[in-house]
Amino acid sequence: MKTTLEAILYTQSPALFLSAVILLALYFIRRKEHAIRSVLDLIGGIGCIVLGVALYFIGIGAEVFTIKDFWQIRTPGWVGMAVVLLLAAVTLFRTVQRFFRRRAESRRADRAQREHQRQLEDVWKDAYASGMADAMATGSGTSEPEEPVKPEGQDPA
Question: pTM score, two decimals?
Fold first, then answer.
């Protein structure tokens, strides 16, 4: 059993390289918006590359595969790559879902803000019309503008 587990571990280099590519792509995508996450992606990508290279050399040293056929991806390697791709797909799905949820919430908030602004404008128009009707009804609504009130004690010249 130990030999099988070692062989499975040593053949995970392709999955680690795929993980490194995904993490490095995430680094370039996130570097301006999420600085800490992007640095963690970069560190993880570099770690996956180093670990993948180390597993190749340790696997060759343990004679799990030879230098002539080390480029061949064995079944455990394909399984590891499938797991990495599945995790990447789930992460991508959740990210897209979160993006669309935020976008819908933003649209609802914008719509509510526009509706509130429209209601305020309607109230202002109604209040202005009501004020004008009251002014006309009391007779103070003349067509000529009223003289501005001058402060006492000042010369008009």
Answer: 0.59
